[in-house]
Each structure stands twice: as structure tokens, then as C-alpha cells.
Amino acid sequence: MKSKNLLILLITAMLVSLSACDVKSTKDIDKDCEFDFLHTDTVEISRYKEHSYFKLNKKDTEFDISNLEFISENQDVATFSYDSTALGNYIYYNIEPISNGETDVYVKCKDCEAVSQKLHVIVTIKNNTATEANIVVTENPDENSINGRGRSDKGRSEPNYVGTVGYAVIYCDEEYELRNTDKFTDTSLWTIPTFEPDKQFWTETTITLPHKTEVKVLEQSLEHEGFGNYSGYLLVQKLDDSQNYYINVSNYVTKPYWTYNDNLRDAALSGAFIAEYNQVSDYYPVSRSGEKVTLEDGINVLVTGISGDSNHKNEIEATVWKDWKYGYDGVSVYFNAEDLTIIY
Fold it and tell me: Most buried by CB count within 10 Å: which residue of 40, 215, 241, 327?
């Protein structure tokens, strides 16, 4: 449903059966797979009503996503579709409500004929309010463009993150530390601080969260700093163990930008990541002054943003550690997006 009118959508989704993926392939080789959905009891889709994921466990490490079939038994009620893949075997999907009614959605492997558990979806669309439901969702026409990091999504109004599912990720302070070490490829250094309230202050704890930790926002405490920018803290719940932590709002995003290999500009605008350089474009990397920079293929670089290159030819800014003319150091270099591949 693509209506731009504000609707209250009532979606109750329950897991109704679990079919272990132990069906033998019609081929000689057993390629059993298991579909490990995020939710094991009641599916809560909250603000991102149609977006979640499952983990694909497969004996054969090589897998073609085209072998997965996303099935809705009644596409007039809701569609079920593939969205993206993260970390090799985390499969994101979309459930989009179409009209009032009920349907079951599930995944099937066309190769080995394994079938996932089914999600039972009930869609009830009301113009004003939903009177009975497990989950109430307000449709926001701009929900797919939530800025995160405390940046207003509409005018200068306070962003509402409560109920959204996103990621705890590094920001300026953590990026600064990474830019100043040639150990930036050590992912154990990519951590996010947590905090605890102390009357009117916030105190940093000794607990940190790994970069890209998936979380759900339970509460927010934000203050307007001006021009649509908000500071403050979010109470978030880790999805993998249900533990709660306070994080700085600047460390929260709703999109896995590190999967944006087809749009490095948006990825670089969203946050830092590690990329591998290989010269394939017609544009060599350049220094801040525009001089050619010679680098070996396969070198890892730390991308931290974009430059003001009006031609958008070498606008991806990254820190490169190597022996330069004046010694070994980390220096800003500007790349064409075609020459970089996100690896973390």
C-alpha cells in the first residue's frame, strides 16, 4: 500500500508452525538449511512494521540468494519480499500490508525444498484508530528516510525513535580514535560507549557495545540544540539478549549503511566504514591538494565522509596509512566510489 495518507495499521503476526529445514534435496548432495527468524513467539514489527530479518544456517557455505522464494499465500492482503543481505547470512525481508485480511508468509529454498516457519499476518486498516490489537503501527510517509543521530526528520521537530529498530554505531569521538591509529582494521576497537543517568547528568559506564549492534529503542531523552539537531540519550534493548543500555543518540542509526556497496556516497554520509581499494575507475585517488596518490590494490582504508568535490569524481574521503614522503602516517585521500568496496 503506497498511500501517503496517515493511517493506523494494525498488524498482528504470530509464528504458527515451525518446519525444520531437513527436507532432502532432489540432488545427490544434502544441502539442508535452517531459517532462524529473529522472533520466536510473537512478531513485533512496531514502526518498521514490514522490516525484519532471519538468519540462514546452511551446511553449504556458498549460497545464491535467488534460490530463496519469499511466499505470501494471499498477496492481496500482504506481500512478502527480499530486501537485502548482511554479513553473508542475515537475510532482511519486507512484509507490506495491502488490504484488510489474513495471510501466511514463509520462505522456501528452491534448491533443497526446505520451508521456514510461517508468519501469520493479520492486517486491519483504520482511518483513525485501531481498537484491538497486539501491535499498533502509525504509518509515516517518511519512515524509510529516518536520519538517526538526533537529526530532525521533519523541519526542526524532535525525531521519534521509540519503537524503532536500528543499530548502535560509532560516531565522531570513536571515528577520531580510529583515524589516529593504523590498527583501525581491528574491529574490537569499534565500540560504542554506554551511559547511566546520575540525576541531571549522564555518566559513562565501563560497558561498551560492538559497532553495528542491533537494538530497539525503548525511551528517549532529547534536547534541541538548534537547526533540527538534537542531543541526548536513548534507552535501547539489544535484540540478541534483551539487555537494556543507554547510548548517546548520535550513536543510533536505522539503516545498515555498511551494506550500501551500490551507493558509497550515501554510506559515507551515514557513518564510517572500512573499505578495500582496487583501481577500476578512470580516476586515480588524489590528495587534498588534488595530486595523484599511488596506492597498491587491496589496501584497506578508513572511510569517514565525503569531500566537496563538485564533479563527484573523487568525493569519498578516507584515511590511508602508509609510508609517505615525510614518513609513516595516516593521511586523508579522496577516492572514486567505483574503486572502493565496503568490507566492514
Answer: 215
User: Average pLDDT of the chain?
Assistant: 78
- 201 domain-assigned: yes
Q: What's the pLDDT tens digit per position in 207-260?
A: 999 999 999 999 999 999 888 889 999 999 999 999 999 999 999 999 999 999
21 and 120 in a single domain? The answer is yes
- Could you tell me the pTM of the whole model? 0.60
- 3 state DSSP class of 175: helix
Label residue 252 exposed, middle or buried (CB < 10 Å: 0-12, 13-18, 19+). buried
**Using CA atoms, how far apart are residues 200 and 3, in angstroms rounded to an integer?**
43
Q: Which long-range contacts (CB under 8 A, 24 or more apart) does 319-327 make?
A: 319/179, 319/184, 320/293, 320/295, 321/182, 321/184, 322/295
* Residue 119 domain flag: yes
Q: For residues 134 and 16, state if they share a domain.
A: yes
